Amino acid sequence: MARINIEGSQNVEVSVRIPSEKTPQEQLTIMEAYTQAHKDGAKLDKAQREINCLKTIFPTLFRSVEDDDLLAGRLDFLPIGFGSVTSIGGVGHYCVFHKLRAFKDELSSDEEKKRVDELYHYWEDHDVKAIYCQDVLNDTTTGRFIDCHYPFMATARLSGMMLNYRKLLDNGINGLIDIMHKQKRTAFMQSSIESIQLLKEVIERQKELVKDAMNNADGQRQKDLQLMYDDLGFIKERKPETFHQALQLFWIYALCAGVINYGRMDIVLGPYLKRDIDNGLIDEDEAYRYLKSLWLMIENRRTTVNGRIIVGGYGREDEEACDLFAKICLRVCKDTRYVEPQFTLRLTKDTPEYIKEMAYDCIASGATYPTLYNDEVNVPAVEYAMRVDRKTAEQYIPFGCGEYVIQGKSVGTPNTLLNLLKIQQMVLNEGRDPMDGIVKSGPVTIPKVSEYKTFDEFYTKYKELLEYYYDLSVKAQMHSYTVMNEQVSFLFNSILMDDCIGRGKALLDGGVEILGGTNETYGNINTSDALYAIKKLVFDEKKYTLEELNTAALHNFEGYEKIQRDLWNVPKYGNDDSECDELANDLYEHVAKGIRQRGIENGMGYYLIVISNNQTNTDWGHETAASLDGRRAGVYMNPANNPQGGAAKNGPTATLNSLSKFNAKYHGGSVQNIKFTPRMMHDDKVKVQALFDTYFKRGGCQLMVTVVDHGILEDAQKHPEKYPDLIVRVAGYSAVFVNLTKDIQEELLSRELYD
C-alpha cells in the first residue's frame, strides 16, 4: 500500500475535456498493454523500457481527423500512459488515480472492474509522481500539489518544455536519424532512434486517418485532405519545404513529445511562410486558414494554463518573416477568442507600430490576448537571473503562468510552491498554523507573539523561517529531477533539447545544457501589506500590540471589526505609496535572492521564484487563516504580483507604478493583471496606450489585460447560459468565466475595473 495519499487533483483543470474516441473496453486494453510493457521492462535500461511502453500507445491513441482540420494530429489521453506534465496526464510513466477510479464506473462487468483494480494497485508503486511523493511529503511542512493545508507544496513534473523545432525542421526525420547514427550506440541513443522510427509510424497512421476522411469529402474539403495526405508522405521521408509541411511536422512531433507549450513559432515557421507567399504558393488568407486550424487543435487539448505561442522580441534572424507570421497570428487570435493557445507578444523599442496596433485592437476586442512582455526589461533580467549571455537570454520563453525557460536549452519546471502568508502566520503563533493548530516550523524556534519587541525582531524571525522553507524547497526541486531521471529518459523531449544527442545523455541525466527550475510563490502582497500594517499600527503608531492584532485575526475579526477596519485602512500595495511599496519590494528581494542563491549552491543553472497564482491563490486562500492585512480566513489571497482585491484605490497609473517597482532580474517571471472597460479601451485609446508605454518604460516586465463591461461578470454569475464565450484573465492564463468555480469568479470580481 502507498504510504502517501496520491489521489486527487494534480493540476488546475478549468476547460471541459473532450471525451476519448475509444470505447471503455478499448481504453482498458491499451492501459493493460502499457502496464504489461512496463512490467516486462523492469530489468531493462530506462530508455529501452520507455520506448517499449511508447510503442503500446503510439500510434494507437491518435484519433480521427475532424471536419475542419487542416492539420493531422489529434490524440486521446488515458488515466495511464506516458507524459511530461500533469495537464494532459502525468509525468513519465503515470497513473492519474482519481481518473482511473472514475473510469471504473464506465465499465459494466465485475471482471473489467477487477482489471482496473489490478492496474490501480500496480501503479501505486510505479507512478513516477507517486514515487516522488513517498520520498518528499510529510505530515507537517510539505504537501503534494494541490493540497493546500500545507505552507509548502512539492511535485514532480516537466512543465514548460520548449523544444528546438528548428533542429527538427532543418534536418527532417531522416536527418535526425543520421545524426544519431553517428553517435556512440548506447541504450539511450538506440531508444532515441527507435523513437524517431516510431514517429514515422505515427505519420503513416495519420495518412490512414486522412484517407478515411477523404471517403466522405468533396470540393475544397477534398483538396485540403489531399494536401494533408501528400504532405504527411513528404515529411515522413524528407525535410519540410513548405509552410504547411513545416507546420504539420512540428505539430505531430509536439504531440508525441507530450509538450503543451510551443515557443517562438515565428522564428520556426516564419521563414517557410514568407517563402511560400513570395513564391505565390499560398497567400495570407490561406496561411490564416492553416493557423486557425492550429489554434483549434491547441484549444482542443484543453490544458488551461498552457499552449504558449510566442512572437516578437529580440533574437530573431529574419524579422520580416517573423513579423509576417505575427501579423497573421494576431488576426487569428482576434477572430477565434479561444482560451488557448496563450498567445504572447514580446515587445521591443523597435516593434513595428502596426504590430502594436493590431495587438491593442485584439486585446480591446475582449480576446485577452496577446499577453505582453517587455524585452527591454526581460532580456537583461534573464541574462542576470539565469547567468547566461545576452544571445542566450534573447531566447527566453514564458510558459504556464509566467515562468521563463530558454527555448531548446533549459528545464525550468515549477515543482515547488510556497505560501508566504501562511508562513507569516506561523511566526505569529509559535510555529502553529492557525487553520489546524499543527506546528509546521520544523527546527526553527518561534517565540510567543508578545516577545517581539521591535518590528525588526519580528521581520527577522519571519525571514529565518522562510529560509528554512527555502532549504526544503531546493531539496524537493532537485529530488524531483533525481526521481524522474531514475525512471525515464523523456526520449522525444531529449532529442530536441540542446545538447542531449551531442552529449549522448538523456534530458535530466546531464543532457540538457541548463538545468533550471522555478518556485511558485503565493500571498506575496498580502504578506507585505500585513508586515506594513504591523509596522505602522504596532511599532510606529503604537495603536495596538502585536498580540491584540493576532488575537483579532485568530477570531477571524468577529467582535474585532474596528481592528479589521484599521488594518484595512493602512496604505496598501498598488497605490504607489512609496513606503508600503518599499517594504513589499524588500520582502520580494529577500525571497527571490534567497531562492536563487540556494539553486546556485546546489549546482543548478538557475532556480528562481515565479510570482504566480493560477487560481492556487484562491485554493490556498481557503486554507489560510485571517491575516493582518485585514483579510478574513478562507478568503482568496492576492493574485500574483497584483494588489489584493479592493485594495487598489488610486487608479490604474498608481497600480502600474507599484507593479513596476520589483526588479525583474531577481525573478523568473511574474504576472500583472489589469481590467478595463471597452469604453476606456476605445474612447480613451491614446491614453491607455500611453499608460502601457509608460509602465514598460518604468520597468514593467509583463501585462495582461481583461476588457469587460461593468456588470457583465456579475450577470454571468447569475445567467451563465448567456455568456458561453466570455473570456477573462485568471492569472498567467485565460478561462471562460462561466467554467470557473464561484470562488474563483469572486476573486476576479474583486479586482478593480478601470473606466
Automatic annotation (TrEMBL):
Question: PROSITE patterns, per this entry?
Answer: GLY_RADICAL_1 (PS00850), GLY_RADICAL_2 (PS51149), PFL (PS51554)
Glycine radical carried by residues: G732
**Keyword Lyase on entry:** yes
In this protein, which residues make up the domain named PFL?
2-632
Q: Name one GO molecular function term.
A: lyase activity
**What SUPFAM superfamilies would the database entry show?**
PFL-like glycyl radical enzymes
User: Would you say which domain of life the source belongs to?
Assistant: Bacteria
Q: Where is the Glycine radical domain?
A: 639-755
Coiled-coil ranges per UniProt: 196-223
Keyword annotations of the record: Coiled coil, Lyase, Organic radical, Pyruvate
Q: Does the keyword Nucleotide-binding apply?
A: no
A matching Pfam family: PFL-like
Put simply, this protein is called Pyruvate-formate lyase
Q: What is the lineage of its organism?
A: Bacteria, Bacillati, Bacillota, Erysipelotrichia, Erysipelotrichales
